[in-house]
Amino acid sequence: MAPPFSPLSLISGSALPRGEGRGDDLREALHHSGVLSRASRIFVGFSGGIDSSVLLHALAQEEKYLNKIQAVHVNHQLQDAALEFEKFCKNFCENLKIKLIILNPQRKINSGESLEAYAREVRYECFKSCLEGPQDILVTAHHLEDQAETFLIQLFRGAGLPGLASMPVLNHLGAGNLYRPFLNISKQLIKNHAEFFKLNFIEDPSNLDLKLDRNFLRQEIFPRLKQRYGGLEKNIARSARHCASAQELLNTSAQELLKKIGGVLGKKLNLKFFWDLKKSEQILVLRFWLASFDLILSEAQIEILLNSKRLKIKNKNKFYDIREFKNIFYVLDLGQKPWSFEINQDHILNSLKIQGLDLEKLALRELIIKPRTQEEKIKYPGFSHHKCLKNIFQERDVPPWLREHIPLIYEGEKLIGIILPEVFE
Length: 425
Known about the structure:
The chain has 425 residues and is an alpha/beta fold. Helices cover 40% and strands 16% of the residues. A 6-stranded mixed β-sheet has the order 3-2-1-4-6-5, with helices on both faces. The longest helix has 29 residues. The protein is elongated.
């Protein structure tokens, strides 16, 4: 098959070119802030296109990174040429003597789902699976023009500051981090590198599909804008940085307000003091808190949640129920079992202690956890009668959606208590 699928033509052992706007900026970008030097493992998102090919090749010229680098190719299996792309990536990595990981998304695209959104979501899920800790870094080849396109796409969607901030150079991804060293590098510098080293790369035919927003902007809109406005991409990227700075200040304010009302990210939100905040502060805190669950709500959805105190939404092909109970907001992932806690001995003992049992009088070795089977009743110490679980749930403010799934604690064959959700907080 003719290029771009032919074997690589590399200048073996050559360093990154200097001068003529070719390599200095790329080298500086790779070394910027020492992110890669501190990494224990470097995973390079590698599609085989010009951008990721240049990134991988540039990293391979840096001897101190060689033993850390692994390329990751995600075969979405969405095109007839997908296996040819995969084969090209294997050849590229073999020439550079770099290990290649090939991953296939497990989830198939849903009916009516955006192809762009699907491909991006499953690609990053695959990337996440490689990252095991904070010293693991995923590196991608997003560049200046990508940043400008992202900004405009978000603008046309009516995004707020988080969207307009576009892509950060460094942020968390799964258990590790995502690094975009070329984010302030122009596409022309990337092309210069590929030309200098005579690199082959994949020309993905899907990049010509104008039905995709990014392709439409890249091919139809940006060329005309660039003719009229000099330095367009740099100016847009600067606006994105301004938005990111403003959002950072808002996040700091939201963190302080959340702490003031006793809230914690990733946990339930007590609303006791929430309603004393100004409306703008309520929205700020609510958005900040929901972001810890990876949830972004529209302006209209925020209004519904504040007014009705309940909202069901679909986010990244998952369904969530945000609801209030006893003046507390909960976020429920409807794709998970209502009871998802892993129980250990401390949870059992703390639950019994809260329910008034003397732990010293219990045969701890005989404690057993069982699921509910019927309307069981419990006779607590000091009480002359049994109490039904319904009353216990009400007394302990156990949320209704958990009640059928609450595990029960037995001492041998005797029911002595329940596992309380509060012991997991």
